[in-house]
Amino acid sequence: MYVAVKGGERAIENAHAWLAEERRGDTDVAELSIVQIREQLSLAVNRVMAEGSLYDPDLAALAIKQARGDLIEAIFLIRAYRTTLPRFGTSKPVETGTMACDRRISATFKDLPGGQVLGPTFDYTHRLLDFKLAAEGDLPEAPMREAQVGEVPHVTEFLNREGLIEEALHDDAPPPDLTREPLEMPAERALRLQALTRADEGFTLGLAYSTQRGYARNHAFVGELRIGSVPVEMHIPELGFAIDIGEVTLTECETVNQFKGSKTEPPQFTRGYGLVFGLNERKAISMALVDRALRWEELGEDNEGAPAQDAEFVLYHADNIQATGFLEHIKLPHYVDFQSELELVRKLRREAGASDVQEAAE
Amino acid sequence: MNAYNFAYLDEQTKRMIRRAILKGLAIPGYQVPFASREMPMPYGWGTGGVQVSAAILTPEDSFKVIDQGADDTTNAVSIRTFFERTAGVETTTKTSEASVIQTRHRIPEDPLIEGQILVYQVPIPEPLRFLEPRESETRKMHSLEEYGLMHVKLYEDISRHGHIATAYAYPVKVEGQYVMDPSPIPKFDNPKLGDMAAIQLFGAGREQRIYALPPYTNVVSLDFEDHPFEASKADHPCGLCGAIDSYLDEVIIDDAGGRMFVCSDTDYCENRQAAGHKGKDAA
């Protein structure tokens, strides 16, 4: 005897309870604190802030804990929280030229004003498992030196002075905001950059890599990569001037790309740009390469039909929260639609003269 | 849940969504872009429908949520609970008692009446999407009423299979103008779309589109004169209530592949059973 399935509500409650237990793991092992995650898994925290579009290390750490370390799930938690926040206003554009750099490297000049600063990078570590870490010992102190004071000028400015690189167009118009307006095509560069900075790191990396392998190759040099903190200023109408409301750590990448020139323009290098919350140079470099690939039209280049050149393809598929939601929704019941397909296929098969064992048995 | 506004969304966002809904009602079948918000449930799980419901719900409403026709499918339970918590509205499983019904993949069997609102969850609002993946192109096609590609697709189905091989999300034409995706309802439900007394609102969250059918709108399923549209369902009565006019789910009941057919609309089925109707598999 068949009884219509009931009890979805109970099942959901029980699933949530089990999930909470699994998240905690063995209770004989000390529980992770938010501070531990924020301090010791800071790159995960950075990724969640960047793709969650919310600069708050503590909330990002909380989201990582709640998501059991699933970063896309954590990003989702942050996005869903972010969208409920009231918007008081907008900051002034941050000035990355005044960044207090922890790291600043250029691949195009051996030395330059402001110097090359490696900073805390994995780059030249040998990827050997460090079993000492398993023993939780103290670590030796890193050597210190006085911080450099003064501005660290952008490498592209040097090229710009000679007219060797395209002028970065100055635009004081408020940039569009895809979290407040529906994404519509064609998307201007500011909008594309906003989409890219919150885009999935893996997707952006894959697209950028594809340009390096020849799908819309654009010969990128890392003109400059810098990581550090910048003050965030906001204009307060009641005061009549701007005040610092805090600071954020950013990773900025400017690529210098080749460009042959055209009938109307002499040969010039072109630019790709990446800017990401926190410390994430893989993402910033990827973003710069994809930004550059998407600029083919304004630079008068050929459409090679490469994925990274296709703004609709890139922008509509780069958001991991949209992607994972839609991908995973196929877990939901679809039996109504499946039933209608079943009927159709049975009918077509009957008409094609195929014997349907099940139908015959009835 | 006092930290959140009534029905979760802030009033400015609701206002933005209501404007999109009103525009949609004014231009039936036209896909209105709206600034869809990130909701606390995943994209693809009804965020469009949830935002539409959140924008139209009032404290006096009685709210029903169905998925696959049933009130107790897990995602329907989840969405209903969401609004119980964030809006505190009365919820019901009775079609006749609901003022707002959010649905995924079905239209209730009982005819809806004036004053009711049916909110559809829509995964891909663009009926031309699988013929032309580019949004910039499909928007142009709609504005030029360039629907030849769709007719060619349907014609190719007929030449290949002898029938139009679309069983759900069957495209319709609204008031002789826009071709519209009715969301993935089985084509059995298509005839209910037209001339409906209730307001029909369609929300696609991930795709950031809202569209609408005002009451008594002319809605025609695309077809050809010599291959007229045909609503179809499993050719059985409901095993529980004996209904012969309702859409049926096929349920596998034993290892030998034994099957029975039951109403997908659980409220309809329960009402019939309560009224004394009995199917052959009923206890």
Entry keywords:
heterodimer; A: 362 residues; alpha+beta; 3 domains; 4-stranded antiparallel β-sheet; 13 helices; 4 strands; 38% helix; globular; B: 283 residues; alpha/beta; 7-stranded mixed β-sheet; 3-stranded antiparallel β-sheet; 7 helices; 12 strands; 27% helix; 18% strand
Plain-language structure description:
The complex is a heterodimer of chains A (362) and B (283). Chain A has a 4-stranded antiparallel sheet. In chain A, 38% of the residues lie in helices and 13% in strands. Chain A is α+β, with helices and mostly antiparallel strands and 362 residues long. Chain A is built from 13 helices and 4 strands. The model of chain A has no long low-confidence stretch (mean pLDDT 90). Chain A starts with 7 loop residues before the first helix and ends with a helix. Chain A is globular, with a radius of gyration of 26 Å. Chain A has 3 domains: 8-82; 96-121 and 144-324, no CATH class; 336-361. The longest helix of chain A is centred in the N-terminal third of the chain and has 17 residues, at 8-24. With 283 residues, chain B is α/β, with parallel strands linked by helices. In chain B, the strands form 3 sheets. A 7-stranded mixed sheet of chain B has the order 1-9-8-5-4-2-3. Chain B has a 3-stranded antiparallel sheet with strand order 7-6-10. Chain B has a two-stranded antiparallel sheet with strand order 11-12. In chain B, helix 1 crosses helix 2. Chain B is globular, with a radius of gyration of 19 Å. In chain B, strand 2 (62-67), helix 3 and strand 3 (90-91) form a beta-alpha-beta unit. Chain B contains 7 helices and 12 strands. The chains are: A alpha+beta (362), B alpha/beta (283). Chains A and B meet through helix 1, helix 5, helix 11 and helix 12 of A and helix 3, strand 11 and strand 12 of B.
